[in-house]
Specification:
5-stranded mixed β-sheet; 239 residues; 2 domains; Rossmann fold
Length: 239
């Protein structure tokens, strides 16, 4: 951690921009593994988001991973490329191979679902959970916009602004712990800069502030589920 924080991310600053630091760190992350527990089910993107100069990528689909990884390799700054272990095992996020030259820019969110009533901002494994919750909400008469950030640092503020101006209600869903999770930064900025567009408080959905348990039953209670996102959508819709 300290080598990333004090060496990689500071090389440009310490050298007065004389040296670049083109390093990509591919790191497995996340839970929903049924028994991964405290060593293999953690999410800590918010910790690294405090490191100036570090790019943080968190794809939710195979095609996004391919495009963003090529961009990361070509980047002249250090990139933390977070690969969710649960998504390795899924088929819903698989897509045809986009080709050897396919790239995606950083700070360009993906609009996964159109909606007019509530925005759900999310990333990683929670994108699919948000899509499931949005479909259920639609059956109840609420149209949910799902925005997949894809990168944490930098993130796509312009897309967030457009979505908030469209729906006026926001739910932020992430797998990291609630307290000091990256969703808190987004919620604070939305409340500060987009307050006049909000018709309800910003609602966050995240993991409990505790280690992830070995027991699959407890893991399900600790990690956010699609049902938790749906409850947040209902709460904000009623506000």
């Amino acid at each position: 951690m300290m080598q990333i924080r004090n060496e990689l991310t500071m090389l440009r600053y310490r050298s007065n921009n004389a040296y670049a630091c083109p390093v990509v760190i591919r790191a497995p992350i996340g839970g929903y593994l049924r028994g991964g527990s405290l060593y293999h089910s953690q999410s800590g993107e918010s910790i690294f988001a405090h490191c100036p100069g570090l790019r943080i990528v968190f794809p939710s689909t195979a095609a996004d991973a391919a495009g963003l990884l090529r961009t990361a390799i070509r980047c002249e700054d250090p990139v933390l490329f977070l690969e969710h272990k649960h998504l390795y095992r899924q088929t819903y996020n698989s897509e045809p191979y986009p080709g050897a030259d396919y790239t995606l820019p950083f700070a360009k969110a993906a609009l996964r679902r159109e909606g007019t009533d509530i925005t759900v901002i999310t990333w990683g494994a929670l994108v699919q959970s948000a899509m499931v919750a949005a479909k259920q909400a639609q059956e109840e008469g609420t149209e949910v916009l799902v925005l997949d950030l894809r990168t944490i640092a930098p993130y796509d503020w312009n897309s967030i602004v457009r979505s908030v101006e469209t729906t006026n209600r926001v739910v932020i869903a992430h797998e990291d712990q609630l307290t000091c999770g990256f969703g808190a930064e987004l919620a604070a900025r939305i409340a500060s800069e987009l307050f006049e567009h909000l018709d309800a408080p910003v609602k966050r959905v995240a993991s409990l502030d505790c280690p992830v348990a070995y027991s699959p039953i407890l893991e399900k209670e600790i990690l956010p589920q699609a049902s938790d996102i749906l409850c947040a959508i209902r709460e904000i819709a009623r506000y």
